[in-house]
Design a protein that fits this description.
5 strands; 10% helix; elongated; two-stranded antiparallel sheet; 87 residues; mainly beta; phosphoprotein; myosin light chain binding
Length: 87
């Protein structure tokens, strides 16, 4: 069988802390960040709901683009997608 070429894209995301001056969270239960990149969902550990929120989290998202033959193809595919950050 002939070799199939594909490109792989990896994103290493480091989240140290989240600040929001002047904001007080009403709900005092622990909180986490839920992040979706390349259709993969990951979440941080729960932290107390007091600013600054200190996560010190590292996440790696990877995706293989089997139809891509050059990096421009990957860029075109990623431009059609978007990232979401939810808490």
């Amino acid at each position: 069988m002939p070799k199939v070429k594909a490109l792989q894209c990896a994103l290493a995301l480091e989240i140290r802390s989240v600040t929001c001056p002047g904001v007080v969270l009403k709900d005092k239960e622990d909180i986490y960040l839920s992040i979706c990149v390349f259709g993969q969902y990951k979440k941080t550990q729960c932290v107390p709901a007091n600013f600054p929120l200190v996560f010190n989290a590292r996440m790696v998202f990877e995706k293989v683009f089997p139809e891509a033959v050059d990096p421009g193809d990957v860029v075109a595919q990623l431009e059609c997608k978007f990232l979401t950050f939810n808490s």
